[in-house]
Every structure is written in structure tokens, then in C-alpha cells.
Design goal:
Elements: H1 2-24, E1 46-49, E2 67-70, E3 76-79, E4 86-89, E5 95-99, E6 107-112, E7 118-122, E8 127-131, E9 137-141, E10 159-162, E11 168-172, E12 178-182, E13 188-192, E14 205-210, E15 216-220, E16 225-229, E17 235-240, E18 244-250, E19 256-261, E20 267-268, E21 274-275, E22 282-287, E23 293-299, E24 315-320, E25 326-330, E26 335-342, H2 345-354
Antiparallel strand pairs: 1-26, 2-3, 3-4, 4-5, 6-7, 7-8, 8-9, 10-11, 11-12, 12-13, 14-15, 15-16, 16-17, 18-19, 19-22, 20-21, 22-23, 24-25, 25-26
């Protein structure tokens, strides 16, 4: 018995140093570890809504806002599916004027050319129209109230781009899935494109824009891509599966801004038809002319009928003023909003370096 106890005692004594050694190598709890001293600097730019913009007078209504444009005086042209459909505000939100009740039926996108003329796409009348800044009708492309796919007809055209020489390019989108080229007098030149998914084909060309080098950018919305063409219709580039594009804004520096949503699977309607709406989120992206993403901003998506300032609901159009403020219009939200750019630390440093 004594021998057995002595053996057990010796075993215990032998284990003590080993247990002590094991205890030494147990790491401290995670909570006790010190975190590195991360830089406390916000590098990302952001956008703060100006909830007081604009100051809409009584009797000036809004419905869906599919078109918006900022002119050289930083006046904001809001194109809405209400009467009056064309409304103009300054950057501070002051109402300036409105017109278009008698000529325009269903608003889509709006552009202003280098001479100050106002061009609107009217999907209800199957027209693209050119107006003076005061609202005098100067030109109609298409045949009022008649849809078609020949030289004299359009079918729910979505947008228009005007070259410096006066040539006009129309995204004849909902009905025809083509681009139509007219000369400066409104004479048909040519058209290209058809329904399809191959390069150069379209599934709802929803917007169109021109850069300073004359390249045409087409928002091929249901194909989840931007297609780039020269003015003869030659395909130059395709940016696919980055953003579902709804509208464009191109700056003087050829930065291509796109609004829409992230790529999404088409859902099925109650009738068993594929639909690309509602969008699952709300995005605005800035691209280089080569298709490189330079900036991506997401915005809260509103619940129908419960839209709060700063939320978007089917964002459809965008424009920027000379100060970098962002103006957007949406469909279900039925409003235009102004967002003031909040520069990140990196932008502040670049600005200080330029001084």
C-alpha cells in the first residue's frame, strides 16, 4: 500500500511542472487583446439631403418625376407627370416658371442643348419635342398620337441626345428597341438596333447621352448594361452586370453618372410575365469613359407611400450642378430631391493641395 501511494505521489509531482508549463502558453482572452489604432478619418464622400428644396408654390404639383436637368445657370428643370409638366427652380429652391400643359402628355426624360433649347421625350404622344426655354414648340420628331417603327413614327421614345452640330439621337425604347438618328432639321438619317440580348441589341433602351468626343451611351436597362456607340451605330464597348441603368448625367469632364439599381433577377408578375421592377435597391455610380467605376453611392429605398427625405423609390433621373450637388427624380416617390455632397478627407486634402 505504501509503495502504491508513493507511486501516485511521484506521478503527481511529475505532472505539476508540465501543467504549469501548459498554463503559461494559454493565450489571453480575446477581450483583453488590444486593437490597433485605426485611423479615425472618413475617406468616403457622402450626400446629405436638403429637405427644404425646393419651395414649390401652391398649385404647382408633382407626380412621378422621370426627367431632370441642370442648365449652365444652375437652374434645375424638373420634368413630371403632372401639370405643369416642365418646372424650373434655382439651386436655392426658388420657383422660376413652368409650362407644357397643352403639348405634353406623359413625361419621360428631358435634355437641354448647347443653345438652351429644351428637348423632351413624351411616351404618351410617341414624340420627341423641341421647345424654346419659354415653352414655344419648335419641332416634333415622330407623329403625334401614332406609334410605329418607320422613318416618321416612334413608339414610346424614352430619351434624346443632341450633338453640338445639331444631330439628334433618340432612344426609341419601350416599343421599338432601337436608336434613331435625325439631322438638325429633324430629317430621318438612319436607325439601328432591335430586340435581343446580343451586343448591339436592346431590351428597353431607357436613356441616351453624348460625351464630349461624340460617343453615345445607351442605358440598355433590361439587359443590365450600358452600351457605347459611335454616331454611325458602331458598337464600341459594353459595361454589363454592374448597374441596372435608368438614367444618365455626363459632366464636362466626361464623367458618366448612372442612376438605377444593382443587377437583379427578373421577377414574375401575377400574370406570369417577367418584370424588372420594383428595383431591389437604389444606386448612383460614376464611371470613366472607359467604364471604370470611380464612385458608387447607395441610398435608402423607401416603402411605397412612406417616403422620407433622403430616401429614393424607383430613382429614374439625375443631374449635377456646378457645386457638385446631386438632383434626382423618382417614379413612385413622386418628387425631385437635392443632395449636397459631403467631401471625404481625401477630397479635402486634394482641394487644399490645389490652393
Amino acid at each position: 500500500m505504501r509503495t502504491l501511494l508513493s507511486s501516485r505521489r511521484r506521478s503527481s509531482l511529475t505532472l505539476l511542472p508540465l501543467m504549469s508549463a501548459i498554463a503559461v502558453f494559454i493565450p489571453p482572452p480575446a477581450a483583453a487583446q488590444e486593437l490597433p489604432d485605426f485611423p479615425r478619418v472618413n475617406l468616403a464622400p457622402s450626400y446629405q439631403v436638403d429637405a427644404a428644396w425646393p419651395k414649390r408654390p401652391a398649385g404647382v404639383n408633382w407626380a412621378a418625376v422621370p426627367g431632370i436637368f441642370v442648365d449652365q445657370d444652375d437652374h434645375v428643370w424638373v420634368y413630371t407627370r403632372a401639370n405643369p409638366p416642365v418646372q424650373v427652380y434655382d439651386a436655392a429652391g426658388k420657383f422660376l416658371r413652368a409650362w407644357g400643359d397643352e403639348q405634353i402628355r406623359t413625361a419621360h426624360h428631358l435634355k437641354i442643348d448647347g443653345k438652351g433649347n429644351v428637348w423632351v421625350a413624351d411616351i404618351g404622344n410617341h414624340l420627341v419635342m423641341k421647345f424654346s426655354p419659354e415653352g414655344k414648340l419648335l419641332l416634333e420628331l415622330g407623329t403625334r398620337g401614332e406609334k410605329g417603327d418607320d422613318e416618321k413614327h416612334l413608339n414610346m421614345p424614352t430619351d434624346v441626345a443632341i450633338a453640338p452640330a445639331g444631330d439628334v439621337f433618340v432612344s426609341d425604347g419601350y416599343g421599338n428597341n432601337r436608336i434613331v438618328h435625325f439631322d438638325k432639321r429633324g430629317k430621318f438619317v438612319k436607325s439601328w438596333g432591335r430586340m435581343g440580348v446580343k451586343p448591339g441589341e436592346f431590351s428597353l433602351p431607357h436613356a441616351i447621352a453624348l460625351d464630349s468626343k461624340g460617343r453615345l451611351y445607351v442605358a440598355d436597362r433590361n439587359n443590365v448594361r450600358v452600351q457605347v456607340f459611335d454616331q454611325t451605330g458602331k458598337l464600341l464597348d459594353v459595361w454589363q452586370n454592374i448597374v441596372t441603368p435608368w438614367g444618365f448625367w455626363i459632366t464636362a469632364k466626361d464623367e458618366i453618372w448612372v442612376c438605377g439599381s444593382s443587377p437583379m433577377v427578373w421577377e414574375m408578375s401575377d400574370k406570369g410575365e417577367p418584370v424588372g421592377c420594383p428595383p431591389k435597391d437604389q444606386l448612383i455610380a460614376r464611371f470613366s469613359p472607359e467604364g471604370k467605376v470611380l464612385e458608387l453611392a447607395s441610398f435608402p429605398k423607401a416603402h411605397d407611400g412612406q417616403e422620407k427625405p433622403g430616401e429614393l423609390n424607383w430613382v429614374h433621373c439625375l443631374a449635377l450642378d456646378s457645386q457638385g450637388s446631386l438632383y434626382v427624380g423618382d417614379i413612385i416617390g413622386k418628387r425631385a430631391q437635392k443632395f449636397i455632397r459631403q467631401a471625404g478627407a481625401a477630397e479635402h486634402r486634394r482641394a487644399e493641395t490645389r490652393k
